[in-house]
């Protein structure tokens, strides 16, 4: 017997006769399901997680980045296409498909209104050290509220949703999707549809695949999001001849609290005080400019930086001057009245940390500290230099956060066009296969990250994939 995550039997008839099959249960998948219903298509959505932890990585998010031409009720000033694209270009080092990036940017202008149409609510723009009030719209209640709202809308519109439905393999007939093999309970079943949207995430929770890409250092990585993103659908697409895009070692990797759990620590484990102090490795030495740029444009490089340090660990060190200037982590920092005491608490070499701080303090130049702009507080004569927000670390109490690499999502994926259609290795487009979210984000994010852009890509391509799949299914109604 096939049983749902609620303990009720599933009627096998619920698995047949649908126009569009959506594989995945996060933001991109839900946007696809809703958009396919807008086209009048019948939709089956398969979520591999139980209902109580549905939503994938999207349940841990807070906002999406969106273009806008004037102030809105949730965004200040304006954020136009060229500035948005320049932000993407800078963080990716130019490793992006410009046409697809600009497509997402332009389409993002309509996202908040579309989302509101399904009941999503936003909170007023944020101030403070996140520097996001002008660029990012924050969901009221966070990502969990967002996905719950979408699930309610999908149920209301008649989308069939089955939880703990693990899609194991996709079966193609040439360039055409034929059916998926899906594990439900103790049975494996065939699920067919006229079109499929694959929005099942990357492979960041597959520890063996991570080690294959990164080597043994990955054993010290923590996974910020869901444990269910095992990459099975990505592997199956590539096995079926999909054209791959992206580097398996690239992804959204940030510095998170080393005390976070292996999986599902979420956004609350991120440590946001890096730009307000210094970061040292296990040897007590600094290794990168903590004030290179605004935090939302640089926080995503710190996961990779930590991964290159001995034992893949670092430590953020601040003093009393940083208090109240950043969003705190869920874990309290280590606190001490002297640097020597803090070094002992963090198991750092006392002499090395004191020498590092003394050298840094001596290099700090006079300036006017202003964390809301790229200020003139910098160092001179120390390596690496700190180019903004440099203040002497000399006012007790002193604070320290241990840092590990936190993998959010991976960038290896399959290549698509601006209609979310998947390319095959031979350059042809698959007939009825559409992709959205992490599984295609590597087309736009070759490296680096800018805050909220993953949700933008998922929302735009989810809507596009659902619209295109729904339209394809309706135009092939007699097939």
Instruction: Work out the strand percent.
Output: 15-25%
CATH architect. name of the largest domain? 3-Layer(bba) Sandwich
Assembly category: single chain
Q: What is the number of E strands? A: 18
Helix content: 25-40%
Structural class: alpha/beta
CATH topology of the largest domain: FAD/NAD(P)-binding domain
Query: How many H/I helical runs?
Result: 13
Distance between the termini: 30 Å
The coarse overall form would be elongated
Point out poorly predicted stretches. Answer: none
Domain FAD-dependent oxidoreductase 2 FAD-binding: 19-442
Organism: Modicisalibacter zincidurans
Protein name: FAD-dependent tricarballylate dehydrogenase TcuA
Keywords: FAD, Flavoprotein, Oxidoreductase
How would you explain this protein's 3D organization?
This protein is of the alpha/beta class and 479 residues long. It has two domains: 12-250 and 411-475, FAD/NAD(P)-binding domain, CATH 3.50.50; 253-406, Flavocytochrome C3, Chain A, domain 1. Helix content is 27%, strand content 21%. It contains 13 helices and 18 strands. It has helices at 27-38, 81-92, 98-107, 111-117, 142-156, 207-214, 232-239, 295-298, 302-307, 339-346, 350-363, 438-441, 453-475, and strands at residues 18-23, 43-47, 63-65, 136-138, 160-163, 165-173, 176-184, 187-198, 222-223, 244-245, 251-257, 278-281, 314-318, 334-336, 398-410, 413-414, 421-423, 429-435. Strands 1, 2, 5, 6, 7, 8, 17 and 18 form an eight-stranded mixed sheet that branches. Strands 9, 11, 12, 13, 14 and 15 form a six-stranded mixed sheet that branches. Strands 3-4 form a two-stranded antiparallel sheet. Helix 10 crosses helix 11 (350-363). The protein is elongated, with a radius of gyration of 23 Å. Residues 19-442 form the FAD-dependent oxidoreductase 2 FAD-binding domain. It comes from Modicisalibacter zincidurans. Keywords: FAD, Flavoprotein, Oxidoreductase.
